[in-house]
Amino acid sequence: MKMALKIWRYDPLAGERALREYEVDAPDWATLLDVLDIVKDKHDGSLAYRKSCRMMICGSCGMRMDGAAVLACKTRMYDIAESGHVPVISAMGNMPIVKDLVVDMQPFWGKIRSVEPWLQPGYSDPGEKEYVVSQEEMDVIHKESLCIMCGCCVSECNSMEADPDFLGPAALAKGMRFVGDARDQATVERLQSYSSEHGIWDCTRCYFCQERCPKGVDPRDAIAKLGAEAVHAGIDSDMGAKHAKWFVTSAKTTGWLRETELVPKTQGVVKSLKEVKFALGLLKHGKVPPPVPPHVAKHVDESRALYDLVKQQERGGADGIVQSEKALAHLALDTDEERDPYGEDSFPRPLPIEKDGE
Amino acid sequence: MDAVHDVVVVGAGCAGMRAAIEAYDAGADVAMVSKIHPVRSHSGAAEGGINAALGNASEDDPEKHAFDTVKGSDYLGDQDAIEILCNEAPGDVYQLESWGAVFSRTPDGRIAQRPFGAAGEPRTAYAADITGHVLIHVLYEQVMKRDIKTYEEFFAWKLVIDDDRCQGVIAWDLINGGLTSIGAKTVILATGGAGRLYTGTTNAYACTGDGMAMALSAGVALKDMEMMQFHPTTLAPTGVLITEGCRGEGAYLLNKDGERFLVRYAPNAMELASRDVISRAEQTEIDQGRGVEGNVLLDLRHLGAEKIVERLHGTRELSMTFAGVDPIYEPIPVRPGAHYHMGGVDTDVWGQTGLEGLYAAGEVACVSVHGANRLGGNALMETITYGKRVGRHASEWALTHTTVDVPASVEADAERELKELLDRSEGERPWQIRDELAETMHENFGVFRREEQMQRQGEIVQGLRERYENVVVEDKGPVFNSDLTQALELGYLLDLADCMVVSGLARKESRGAHARPHDFPDRDDVNFLRHTVVTWEDDAPKLDWKPVTMTKWQPQERKY
């Protein structure tokens, strides 16, 4: 069928960008990568993009379709072409463009390296046998180990757009892969390092990384887990950590966020004195509730019960995060309990085996 | 000479990185040259697992592993090489684990092992169904830890031969353009396979046999090139891999009647027979009209949602994306696809080729561990064990020899050849030749082979080679010129196809992956219990033979 694309080309020698439209004949099963291949073969041999495995595991073909990061090999084109929409393909964001859809990933790898992404087990030679570690302990880093380093999350990261030095979702998820590893003995040092400037607490929680990760790594959850682990380990001097802690305190005492106290609790009293004028302005316009008397939410019992439940279960650090639990459930159990594998819309049960002479 | 190192590793998949790590730890100045970033390498697409007699799931020992491998190879594997692999495998897996590999675990916290085809014991250690992915990342972590120099996105094009020694490589810098000559005391080829010779292949676009072809044109011998493994479970239309781990976990193969047809081909092992046996069974079912639209069905439904989600999560993702089938509820349509080259650069058990200073490890090499048919889970193991051994030997040699020379004439010749290609503006672009090559190889040199088809394929390859002489690269620019590198890759593939056809015609028997049911249906140990060896002379492949090394096991009839 006919499939059309617009591609943002970039010629590095001339320094010129141009949006070009292509229409090709492609098989119904074609992916975005297949369509790019046809464009390159039959229309313009100079089109540049990376590719290799075409089965969602090598991480080469991250790019943007209509402004959102995708893996080209995972993106089926049939429905898009059928609808008549002509998608715009461009290079990933937050990384310099080398040519057309190819970006310079050196800054990306630099950040990965900076989290010391190798196991620090506290021994140098392997023992006689393997390190004994349960499946449950391994499961903690299941999602982070799925990462293929395609860069889709980094492409979409709003924090990195504002602060190019932000470690970013891929590097932090890689960090969580080691913090969560029962064999790693450098947890505290890692958490200290990841908690510094441009680290864990600089994430704005926009969840774009989570939404656009093609492999279900859920980088924002990984960052949340790192934050929880850091606070649990007493590494909480960063304003972000204090900010998060005050959310918890507010929730368990009054059931909602006491914003007036949030600033001094986060920034410290001295620093927040500088903000008094601004705060009074907000107060005057009814943007903040008066701090006294503390306003207690009607159903504060519920938030206290939730707090106590997590506490009773002795779930500290990342284990206490309720949000990512839901995400995990979403990924693992996205099945249809009602559907019968041997029902009318499927293939019949296999026949029993009949062996010759038996 | 733009740079010089003790050891240069070409290719940075599991074998290449393992070799580089070993050479680095031995004190050598080592660098990797790879046309794609190391973690993009196709080792990462290995799914099912890695074989080592750890004995975590049953009583097992390296000798059993070795016997299964010898038998699986249809007795064409070199038994000394196989014994080394199986003996060193457990220690090498523990090493990977100590580096942080995220293996799946037994209830008592050991590395879990699952049954695999043609293995007498559950011997395949795994990380769900993304074992290769886990290993490539753990190796790259160790590369980063050591800060091993990597020429990333440098396309290795020619080996530098001087004084009858390999002394480096000449590579094209993909990002900036231009040739770079990198001198080395030893060069290790670790460039993987050549699955792109076929239309239906599990292999990545990068698997174009670069190392084999570079070695061939440097006068080095290739061995057992006719031995291309067809994996029984690949997805239509392009051949995306569905792991043998599915059958290891208990999946069935069905024909259109719902029959577990393997009962007629391998009544004991059933779905866990060896890959060559199952691929032939499937092809027979399909050819005789018992397939479903050119496929058979891989049925996982009885395994249940929980097991599928936990251990075969990647398989489910692939089936849903590329076949629109959720294996919890429907069988997956699968068929045989080109998967793994047992053949490759002829090496000894330290990875040394016939050319001093040149080594090979992993799929590019033919040690030969796999003979005429590789067992699932043995490829990853070979990359690790032989990557390590080759890294060790190549670094020892490099550290005891001093001089490196890349003669200016070699650089000038390469520049001239490249300029000639880029300056050509009249002629055919490569893609049509590439597609015709892959389609005809599939048709004429596939699961089953006929004399006349192989002969015809030889003529077809000849015709394509002539057309390739006038191939045109449309992109003339220096930056990320994949049009150029793809043209060079096609040249490699054409050379290798020639070698395969010549070897296939010479082997007048059926053994492992080389099946000739119409004229030579049986194995012929009297005449063909030996390796084919091909060298390149006068612009054509020249065939020779080499004995198989036997230690403990005499050939027996092979039944599953």
Shape of chain B: globular
Give the neighbour order of strands across the main sheet of chain A: 2-1-5-3-4
User: Approximately what portion of the residues of chain B adopt beta-strand conformation?
Assistant: 15-25%
Radius of gyration of chain A: 25 Å
- Biggest sheet record of chain A: 5 strands, mixed
Class based on secondary structure composition and strand pairing of chain A: alpha+beta
The gross shape of chain A turns out to be globular
CATH topology of the largest domain in chain B: FAD/NAD(P)-binding domain
Question: Looking at CATH, which topology of the largest domain in chain A would you report?
Answer: Fumarate Reductase Iron-sulfur Protein, Chain B, domain 2
H/E series of chain A:
EEHEEHEEEHHHHHHHHHHHHHHH
The most extensive interface between chains reads: A-B, 80 and 82 residues
Number of helices of chain B: 15
The CATH superfamily title of the largest domain in chain A: Alpha-helical ferredoxin
Cα end-to-end separation of chain B: 55 Å
Which CATH first-tier class of the largest domain in chain B would you pick?
A: Alpha Beta
The CATH architecture assignment of the largest domain in chain A turns out to be Orthogonal Bundle
Low-confidence stretches of chain A at least 5 residues in length (pLDDT < 50)?
A: 328-333
DSSP summary: helix tally of chain A: 17
Helix and strand composition category of chain B: alpha+beta
Q: Tell me the domain tally of chain A.
A: 2
> What top-tier CATH class of the largest domain in chain A fits best?
Mainly Alpha
